Amino acid sequence: MGILALPWAASSLQAADNTTVDVVMSIQSVDVTLLNGATTFTVATAVAAKKIVPPEPANLRNTGNFFQDYQVKAEKIADTGGWTQNNLTDGSPVGVNEYRLRGIWAVFGATITVNSFETDDVITGTSQTSSATRFFSAAGTQANVGTTAANGGFNIPALGERSLSLLFESGAATTTGSSAARITITGIATP
After folding, report:
1. What are the tens digits of pLDDT across the range 125-164?
2. Looking at the 3D structure of the chain, how many domains does it have?
3. Which residue in 62, 63, 99, 106 has the fewest CB atoms around it within 10 Å?
């Protein structure tokens, strides 16, 4: 048996010191609270082929402890007339036995009209995240709808409040029956 000598091995050995790394973690809470505003959106006097803005918006507060974005979606919950939700964003009119919902974030007390809403404000059955253009009126003035940074449905600080105005578009002239939809607003952590 022979001995194998590695003369470079001894000079390559190094001593290592222990190092401590502190890791700080925090729990992020994402939550939305309805402050006031209509929880039921009834358009009992709606007639076919009309657009109606309810008089009171949904006012919300970020009750989490982190910046968050709001996702918005609508789903049909009751139907006696065979209505379907029209999600087209091309500006086309709503068809027979259809309805369309739109929403925009604006300052509290804004004067919202049917002309405040645009094609990128259509609320669909799939959650859509609010942005500087989605669910925000470029047609309104800063004095009326506010700014995307201060009044939009995204990057909302803890305890930040926002106001969502809605538009209901009823079906074409021969539409009959009724329908009900639920609008769901979900807070997600701002990326």
Report:
1. 999 999 998 999 887 777 778 888 889 999 999 999 999 9
2. 1
3. 63
